Amino acid sequence: MDRIRIRGGRPLHGKIAISGAKNAALPLMAASLLTEETLVLRNLPHLADIATMTHLLAQHGTELSMAGEHPGGGHMGHVLALRTHDISSTEAPYDIVRKMRASVLVLGPLLARCGQARVSLPGGCAIGTRPVDMHIGGLEALGAEIELDDGYILARAPQGLQGGVVVFPQVSVGATENLLMAATLAKGEVVLENAAREPEIGDLANCLNSMGARIEGIGSDTLRIQGVEKLSGADYAVLPDRIEAATYAMAAAITGGEVELLGARWELMEAVAAALARANVRMQPTDCGVLVSAGSDGLSGINVTTAPYPGFPTDLQAQLMALLATANGAAMITETIFENRFQHVPELMRMGADITVKGANAMVRGRGGPAGSVGGGLHGAPVMATDLRASVSLVLAGLAAAGETVISRVYHLDRGYERLEEKLSDCGADIVRLVD
Ligand code: EPZ
After folding, report:
1. Nearest residue CA, atom 1 of ligand 1?
2. DSSP-derived secondary structure letter, 44
3. For 51-70, what is each residue's pLDDT tens digit?
4. I need a surface site. Which of 76, 95, 166, 292 has the fewest CB within 10 A?
């Protein structure tokens, strides 16, 4: 299994091109099941999860072809043409779904297009049990008959999905996406209340509308969809990855450097920028993206609670913890979205971080040094990645720490970060992948 070796203490300086958003690309790919015409998606990131979704769609009957590279050339995102003229199988098998829970996003499209679906329950993962009860409850509210059998969701809607109102008991990105896609072909009007407002959902809704769907309320917590007979193909570019961008913003800050995040969208990062400003990280929009640098007198400890968009994203909680472990003063991080998303804590503590976890709260006692000092008391160590965002928090800590850090199980990283070592070493990091 590949490992990554980092020799820390080197401030990052330069530019990092931000890739297309994984969490927009995955539902957009699933949306290709809703039409027999071709959906062209641009600016797709080269990630393991994207490859998993192509395998899943291919076994449903989708023809996929790489339709060239991003006009910027090089690695910068690829263009994928997806065409599902006929759906050959309405089953999403366990051996694919267990690798990537976003596979459950084919449930709504299959049910809407074919009137049936047999999708494996995704099972839990390192960060929590992650049930899909709201996906199921929402589809039942639109007339689907759903039962659980042998670890699979068996869903049927032989007369098609009906209009109706779905009120989500709590905000769920995936449930909102599944219901939004299913609703586009329902017979009547569907209203989704307490819908998630993540920008990736707006991207999905905009793409669906370009395919002929009729969705109103995009960006709000109430989505109103008038079902249509059929959807057409479209040509759509995926929005930049705000989580990747903020991750690299924290890499610049934790190393005391300055980095321009090319293609990052300032308006998608305002809650993050506000929180990081309190930690003395300077961020500002530029003509090409967002410029980030650490304040002159070191990082400050801050209190942050994760929340659905537009709040501070749970997908940045692990990265923030690494950053605050090097700050001056104490910080309290509260995780409200997932019940077990502190897997990175013991690994950060092996690097010298002072963190105490009590339930959903993590008290971080930063040991930052004076202005310009890097590392904040962290030292390199062999550590293990446990999930996607935990693994990148170890990268951030390694970039700051004195000495050498070797991170194992980096396949977690490859799920969500495209060419991470290259992007960081281009800015001066001493980081290499050790292929075993
Ligand atoms: C999406 O996961 C993202 N994944 C996650 O990013 C992200 O952390 C999460 O949204 C929250 O923003 C993708 O977009 C592919 P949820 P999702 O449904 O849809 C509970 C990453 O690192 N819940 O919003 O699975 C659930 O257990 C990944 O890129 C139910 O109880 O998240 C969680 O506690 C990690 N029942 C909370 O809701 C349900 O039916 C929010 O989950 C659905 C969810």
Report:
1. 173
2. E
3. 999 999 999 999 999 866 54
4. 95
Question: Which strands, in side-by-side order, build the sheet including 328-334?
Answer: 304-305, 328-334, 361-367, 355-358
> Is 98 within 8 Å of 22 (Cβ atoms)?
no
pTM of the model: 0.96
Kindly state which CATH superfamily the domain 3-18+240-434 is placed in: Enolpyruvate transferase domain (3.65.10.10)
- The residue whose CA is least distant from atom 20 of ligand 1 is 130
CA distance 174 to 195: 10
- Contact (CB, 8 A) for 398 and 407: yes
Q: Does 125 qualify as catalytic in the annotation?
A: yes
Secondary-structure class of domain 22-237 per CATH = alpha beta
For the ranges 87-91, 200-204, 279-283, 384-388, the lowest mean pLDDT is seen at 384-388
Number of CB atoms found within 10 A of residue 267's CB: 8
- Report the C-alpha gap between 227 and 379 in whole angstroms: 57
Catalytic pick from 125, 207, 288, 427? 125
Give the closest residue to 200 by CA, choosing from 46, 285, 284, 308. 308
Mean pLDDT, the chain, integer? 93
Band the pLDDT of 75: cuts 50, 70, 90: very low
DSSP 8-state symbol, 66: E
Q: List, edge to edge, every strand of the sheet that includes 152-156.
A: 91-92, 116-120, 152-156, 145-149
Residue 21 DSSP label: P
**pLDDT value at position 144?**
98
At residue 111, what is the residue type? L
Note the pLDDT of residue 124: 66
Report the alpha-carbon distance of residue 344 to residue 341 in Å, rounded.
Answer: 8
Q: Whose CA is nearest to atom 16 of ligand 1?
A: 172
CATH 3.65.10.10 residue spans of the chain? 3-18+240-434, 22-237
Q: What is the pLDDT of residue 408?
A: 95
Q: Which atom of ligand 1 is nearest to 314's Cα? A: 8
User: What percentage of residues in the chain have a pLDDT greater than 70?
Assistant: 95
* Tokens of residue 227, six digits: 């079902």
